[in-house]
Amino acid sequence: MQKDKNKGLGNQIPPDLFHVEIYFEANGSTTKNAQQFYNYYKDSNWKNYRNEIIKNWKVLAWQWINYQK
Fold first, then answer.
1. Cα torsion at 42, 63, 10, 22 (round to 10°)?
2. Closest residue by Cα to residue 17 from 33, 2, 4
3. CA distance 46 to 61
4. For the CA atoms of 43, 37, 59, 13, what is the dihedral angle to 10 degrees?
5. DSSP-assigned letter for residue 48
6. In Å, how far are 7, 21, 24, 59, 69 from 66, measured between CA atoms?
7. 18 to each of 14, 34, 49, 52, 63, how far by Cα in Å?
8. Are 24 and 65 spatial neighbours (Cβ–Cβ below 8 Å)?
9. What's the per-residue H, E or C state across 7-47?
10. pTM recorded for the entire structure
């Protein structure tokens, strides 16, 4: 049960696409933009530009959303 409690909080890597879409919609973006974000980081194996595993996808999603505005 403890593992389910943390689902969708940002520290689950890789996140579920469903959670990413909800986050994007809640922050004024679209599911299409969420899918682009998801696929971009999925293709990079959820690693950043320093080849380190991403610790919180929501930080990057927030930046992605605000860059698109």
1. -80
2. 33
3. 12
4. -40
5. -
6. 24, 15, 11, 11, 5
7. 12, 9, 25, 24, 19
8. yes
9. CCCCCCCCCCHHHHHHHHHHCCCCHHHHHHHHHHHHHCCCE
10. 0.83
Mean pLDDT (the chain, rounded): 88
For residue 59, which of 37, 32, 30, 35 has the smallest C-alpha distance?
37
> Residue type for 19, please?
H
Position 56 scores a pLDDT of 94
Amino acid sitting at position 27: N
* Chain-centroid distance, C-alpha 30: 13
2-12 residue pLDDT tens: 444 445 667 78
Mean pLDDT on 8-24: 88
